[in-house]
Amino acid sequence: MTATSHTIPEAPPITNERQYIEWFVQYSDKVAEERHAAGIYAQGERLSAFVAEHTDRAMDLLEKCPDAKTLFDRVEFLAGDSQVKISAILGEYGGLKNCPEPQKLMLIGLLIHIAIAVEMMSKKYVEAHQVQPVPELH
Fold it and tell me: How far apart are CA 7 and CA 17, in angstroms?
C-alpha cells in the first residue's frame, strides 16, 4: 500500500479575502495545531462546515473593521482579552486536553479567529507598510 500525498494548493490572492481566509483555515500551517486540536470537527465531512464557520466570522470582522486602524485595535483587544479567558479556562481544567468539549472548541475557535485577524493584518496592511507588524500569538 502506498501513501497518498496531499498537495496543498497555492494560496489565493489576498484581494479575494473570502477565498484567502478559506484557504488559510483549511491549509495554513499557522492554524494547523488548532485544526488538529479540533479533531473530528475539522476533519472529513465536517471540514467544510468548520472552514465556513470560521470564514464567516472573519468576514464579519473585516466588515466591522474596514481599515488598518480599526482592525489593529480589534486584534489588540482580542489578543489581550483572550489571554485572560484562555488562561482562566486552561487553569481551571489543567490544560486543553482536559477541557470539556464546549470549552475546548470555544478556545480553539478563539485562537483561529485571532490568527485570521493577525494574518489579514499582515497581508493587507503590514506589507503595505501602513501599520506595524503584530507579534505572533502562538
Answer: 22
